[in-house]
Amino acid sequence: MTVAVLTVDQRRSRTEPDRVPQMIDRMAGVPLDRPLQRTVGDEFQAVLTDPASLPLVLEPLLRDGGWHVGLGFGEVERPLPDSTRAGRGPAFVAAREAVTAAKNSPWHLRLAGDRPGVRPLESAIWLWAAVLARRTKNGWEVADLVDEGLTYEEAGRRLGISQSAVSQRAQAAGIVEGRRARELVGYLAGQLLDEADR
Questions:
Q1: Secondary structure of residue 56 in the 3-state scheme
Q2: 3-114, what's its fold?
Q3: How far apart are alpha carbons 115 and 164 in whole angstroms?
Q4: Looking at residues 93-103, what average pLDDT do you find?
Q5: Is residue 170 a contact partner of residue 176, using CB atoms and an 8 Å limit?
Q6: What is the pTM of this model?
Q7: Which of 63, 74, 142, 160 qualifies as a FRET site for 53, CA 20 to 30 Å off?
Q8: Residue (of 67, 70, 87, 63) closest to 18 by Cα position
Q9: How far apart are CA 51 and CA 56, in angstroms?
């Protein structure tokens, strides 16, 4: 069965405070096969098989921008140990290769593995990252409220601005495009993670 191993390394960790615990806490509610866990130094890992979880862990990392992100797709030795850092198998090796390559890659994110869908998924994530990168603080305010389920009118009331102003912010922030990109990332991840069932 194909799994995804996420390996994340903090950028500029020698000159900035340790932000690993904060990011792990931020993603605490995401369903994972093995939880986010610090491995060594300023790095953490997780194992997941649910494609819906992938956008949930990637978006905070892309939004923050202070991370090298590697995703490895492949098999892992079973049964998985309780500790993420004790896991072994090709997916873990691929994740290590990916996070190393991420240091010199667009958006500091790479994917690796011998599955045919890896490159299309990586391309979709890069395009999604480009949309998210253009968002200002005001754009994120609107995006967060819309993600909570608020209409533009309700978001405007919450922010003390007109519905028209919310619409302008949403357009500038690429909210529609961002949602589509998030859906595409989940779909393509599903093609990779569900391939053993087809």
A1: helix
A2: Alpha-Beta Plaits (3.30.70)
A3: 45
A4: 97
A5: yes
A6: 0.92
A7: 142
A8: 67
A9: 9
